[in-house]
Design a protein that fits this description.
Number of helices: 8
Radius of gyration: 16 Å
Distance between the termini: 28 Å
Largest sheet: 3 strands, antiparallel
Structural class: alpha+beta
Strand order of the largest sheet: 1-6-3
Number of strands: 7
Order of helices and strands: EHHEEHHHHHHEEEE
Shape: globular
Length: 182
């Protein structure tokens, strides 16, 4: 579910690029390329990035952890500010997320980084589940209101989530190379 549909218009796309310029510049410096995929939302089961939309996709895409680990904490995570969960964790969840994954193994050197496999192997405490939502799904400065946020918390355009798919599996997709530095 890491694919993020962040714009429903060209104005929304431009606003999203402006709000995330620092991250985009860093990615470009590392040699990453950007592509814009345009497709009918129904073809990828896209949901607006509200807590209800996240729940819908978690049930469908991650059934192996939904009932056993995530569901019991989901209502609490929805209503609890991220800062409170991070305080409970006792560590900087951003630093853990930034540790990233080894491309060869798909795992991180930091044992607190929560991949699907790691969550399956762990108890599934609320901190582990919230770290999973950040590391595996990408719920960073997430409020559940269905809109993007810049690093300073400024609201951006509507945001949508969808399950990961090979781009050629999406019926009706058009893919365009994008240079977000322009």
């Amino acid at each position: 579910m890491r694919a993020r549909v962040v714009a429903d218009s060209s104005a929304s796309f431009r606003a999203c690029v402006r709000a995330n310029q620092e991250w985009i510049n860093g990615s470009l410096a590392k040699g990453k390329r950007f592509k814009l995929a345009i497709f009918p939302s129904a073809m990828a089961d896209a949901q607006q990035a509200t807590w209800d939309g996240v729940e819908h996709l978690l049930r469908r895409v991650y059934p192996e952890v939904w009932e056993s680990k995530v569901e019991r904490h989901f209502a609490t995570i929805r209503r609890t500010p991220f800062s409170d969960i991070e305080a409970q964790a006792g560590y900087d969840m951003l630093k853990v997320n930034l540790a990233g994954r080894d491309p060869a193994t798909g795992e991180s050197e930091d044992p607190r980084y929560m991949t699907l496999r790691r969550l399956q192997e762990r108890e599934g405490k609320i901190v582990q589940v919230r770290q999973f939502l950040w590391d595996e799904i990408g719920l960073k400065l997430y409020t559940g209101d269905g809109y993007t946020r810049s690093d300073d918390g400024t609201q951006g355009p509507a945001e949508f989530l969808c399950r990961n798919l090979e781009i050629l599996q999406v019926a009706g997709v058009a893919v365009i190379d994008v240079d977000p530095s322009l």
